[in-house]
Amino acid sequence: MTDYEAVIGLEVHSQLLTASKMFCSCVSGYQDAEPNTTVCEVCLGMPGVLPVINRRAVELVIATGLALGCSIGAYTKFDRKNYPYPDLMKGYQISQFDQPVASNGHLDVTTDGVETTVRINRVHLEEDTARLLHRNGSGDAYTLLDANRAGVPLMEIVTEPDIGSPAEARAYLTSLHTILRFIGVSAANMEEGNFRCDANVSIRPVGDQELGAKVEVKNMNSFRSVYGALEFEILRQTALARDGVRIVQETRGWIDDKEITLSQRSKEYASDYRYFPEPDLPPLAIDRALVDRIRAELPELPQAKKTRFMEEFRLSDYAAGLLTASKDTANFYEKLMSFSTFTGKDKYLRAESNSNWTITELSRLENAPGEPAVEGGVDPAHLAELLDMIASGVLSTRMAKTVFEEMYATGEAPGRIAEKGELEQISDADSITPAIEEAIDKNPGPVEEYLGGKDAVIKFLVGQVMKITRGQANPQLVTTLLEDKLKAMR
Ligand code: ADP
Ligand code: ZN
Ligand code: MG
After folding, report:
1. Per-residue confidence of the chain (490 residues) as pLDDT tens digits?
2. Residue 7 phi/psi, 5° resolution?
3. How far is 349 from 297, CA to CA, in rounded Å?
4. With a 6 A CB cut-off, is 9 part of the ligand 1 pocket?
């Protein structure tokens, strides 16, 4: 039986974080606006109006291109992509055909410990379409049109067909998503539709160089559904090929609740769009100085940050990966480390506990694994203080977790919370002695057993003292004091 391998290329559309739309001055943020209110004659496609290029949008695509190792052309131009659809106000979309802002980049991704390079074909600029809202009212189905999204700046990031599996596709998307958020070019929220992925997939006999006919899958709105759609398509195409059925180039849609793809239409070709240079916009010269400035202003990228965290703080690959999965988390961690004055071995120990608290405790409260949003939550200065209190024995780890929850809820400093809640660990003998005497008085049986030689009973008695002090006594100190007292009784 012939073995087949998958070939995948991804096209990501990501909305750019500009204040205004791509070719007019309407506000770009449409999420909270009433339908059809953030519109004007330009984005509604009225005749006789002229588009004006949004400078910021071009800059954000340049930044993205640079972050993906692309070359930025000295000239770029816009083209009309013609197709009739009710969400396309003008009957054409202004996009870029043969001179995109950025091209020939790459993104290195790690899948199950293996690093591969996904080449980026291009990053180009275009405008988003209006939104169609399909409704099924009592009786007839109907469709509503909201043009607020029409004209919102969109960039398209296209890979070469370099991806070999659904897992690799997911690794690429995750990595790209993190980069876009790190450099602040897009909100990149898949659920909200401002980061959308079309997946192209074909199969070919292992060893073949030639590409098979590709199927383009649309309508995935989560990383999980991209993964599912690719898995489904690879199985479907492989089964067909084994039955001797020729796979045809087509566009299919992912049906999320059924976890299948269905044919939507036979694939259109570039020529179907009758691309031609946008006559209302001049070609754009991209100033080298501008590119250099944007390059200089790029923040440290997630991969570089991860490597640095591993070297500077001796964190594991896993921990450094989680800490750099979002910019907020990475910033929080660095802030936290900035309060540590330790050196040498102590520095790395604190780096590790800082990492544990950031990953485990913080993300538990944020309830978003791997992606704790930290603003408004805990002040890193407060967490640093809390860790100092653990280190100096003022708080037990268990108490610290309670204090941490309170810090998270109220924003207060740990010292105040501990004081208010009488949570501080009792570490002086005079304060613990009465509780020890009480525990001995109330448990003559176990005391008898201990005196008779059953050393293990000490654990039970320590537990009783902890109970009497409501968990506040320092357990090490309790054990020592209790042993002294009991030995004196032997
Ligand atoms: P189209 O002209 O249909 O837009 P492109 O050549 O521009 O096709 O490619 C679109 C996307 O499809 C790219 O991400 C590319 O890597 C991918 N792709 C192209 N050919 C194949 C193939 N045979 N199998 C899988 N993906 C492919
Ligand atoms: Zn407008
Ligand atoms: Mg194409």
Report:
1. 789 999 999 999 999 999 999 999 999 998 889 999 999 999 999 999 999 999 999 999 999 999 999 999 999 999 999 999 999 999 999 999 999 999 999 999 999 989 999 999 999 999 999 999 989 877 789 999 999 999 999 999 999 999 999 999 999 999 999 999 999 999 999 888 899 999 999 999 999 999 999 999 998 989 999 999 999 999 999 999 999 999 999 999 999 999 999 999 776 677 789 999 999 999 999 999 999 999 999 999 999 999 999 999 999 999 999 999 888 889 999 999 999 888 899 999 999 999 999 888 776 666 544 444 444 578 889 999 999 888 877 788 888 888 888 888 788 888 888 777 666 777 788 888 888 899 999 999 999 999 888 888 888 888 888 888 877 788 888 888 888 888 888 7
2. -125, 125
3. 33
4. yes
Token output for 158: 């296209």
Residue 460: name the closest of 481, 479, 484, 488 by CA: 479
330 CB less than 6 Å from ligand 1? no
Ligand 1 and 5: CB distance under 6 A: no
Collapse the DSSP code of 133 into the 3-class scheme (helix H, G, I; strand E, B; otherwise coil) and give the result. Answer: strand
The response to whether residue 160 sits with its C-beta less than 6 Å from ligand 1 reads yes
Rounded distance from Cα 299 to ligand 2 centre (Å): 32
Report the residue among 10, 68, 200, 238 best suited for mutation to probe ligand 1: largest number of ligand atoms under 8 A from its CB. Answer: 200
Nearest ligand 1 atom to alpha carbon 161: 16
Pairing mode, strands 71-72 and 250-255: unpaired
Q: Which amino acid is at 226?
A: V
